[in-house]
């Protein structure tokens, strides 16, 4: 019962995060028209969102390891909801960029929800329940696209942002039902709070606490950046950073490229038809061209977005039977291949098919690396490890708009080759990761002799 409730509440953070991140893709054509922006200015909006995300990912990860996951998660939601609402009142392009960057800062703390969920889930369930969290991200993405298709043509993008802020505000009210991680409390020596949380879980599950005590490990300093680069984790950390950067580069590249393909009619069959009809208007040649999404464009975005759960069953099987490393290597290699398929001259239906598979593959990549990163580090540096990885991830996200929205206009094949090449690098890095976490218990402390708590000689101990 507890795990189901936690899964639903923590999963809802993915809905909010998806809506805030996907918002840029659906409002870009409107702000381009309102403020007469060129490609570089439109790309800068997305880049600044991820710049804020990058800076605060490390900060929130550091603070979460020192002061608790729950507090940081609450602060990030309050921050994100506040600045998201302010964005809808932006009087100019500069203010819009600044306020969306502040939203990115807040959204970066949402990763602590995954940390809390990971630290409560038993080893045998993590490989199944964590990938299912992708359903919530999908729900958020579909919700924002559906709202945009109705609100953008009628009352405008400002009301879209205001309405999109409501789920985040509602979720803040549910924070009293979210417990602090018992693993975190034990790692800080706060056994009393950990026992209280476990008793609450036992009561919710209608079961009885086992007899015994929690053994407190040696009090280590928590959230030390140097531990990530310790000889035990150095190679793992560096390869994880490369993979996070590449996965984010590919994921947001697909999202932004999809919007760009639709906004500019870059399907070869449509371009040929336009040339035959002599469509060489001043608007189509202008660097500040203004073409709003049609209903059919929103439908294509919805279909391709649904692809994010298309491979979930196979992804879950791969993670649990092939292992995290091999599964990630395979999906990254396939992602590289499908990026190159976008260069094939095809119809609108063919484009939808390629985008559908790309969204499925990049979503599977994210599923796997999230699980692996949360499992590979000990409790004392788990949030910092996730935070630094998320920060490096946003470097890829910051670069993606300039490839998908700027370079793609100049050299379509060149942009696709960049995306594909990065995916190949990530596939190799994933295959050569030194640690496989499949079936591996979460580590408690950084010191090797403390990775497994010792049983008391005359008492049973509650293992969490």
TrEMBL record:
Q: Where in the cell is it found?
A: Membrane
PROSITE patterns in alphabetical order = MFS
Keywords of the record, alphabetical order, are: Membrane, Signal, Transmembrane, Transmembrane helix, Transport
Segments traversing the membrane: 42-63, 128-151, 238-257, 300-319, 410-433
Q: Which Pfam family is one of this chain's hits?
A: Sugar_tr
Any one GO molecular function term: transmembrane transporter activity
| Endpoints of the signal sequence | 1-18
Query: Quick one: a GO cellular component term?
Result: membrane
What is the first-listed, main subcellular location in coarse terms?
membrane
The membrane-topology field of this record reads: Multi-pass membrane protein
Q: Does the keyword Signal apply?
A: yes
Q: Does the keyword Cytoplasm apply?
A: no
The record's section on PANTHER family has: SVOP LIKE (PTHR23511:SF45), SYNAPTIC VESICLE GLYCOPROTEIN 2 (PTHR23511)
Similarity section: Belongs to the major facilitator superfamily.
Name listed for the protein in its UniProt record? SVOP like
The organism named in the record is Terrapene triunguis
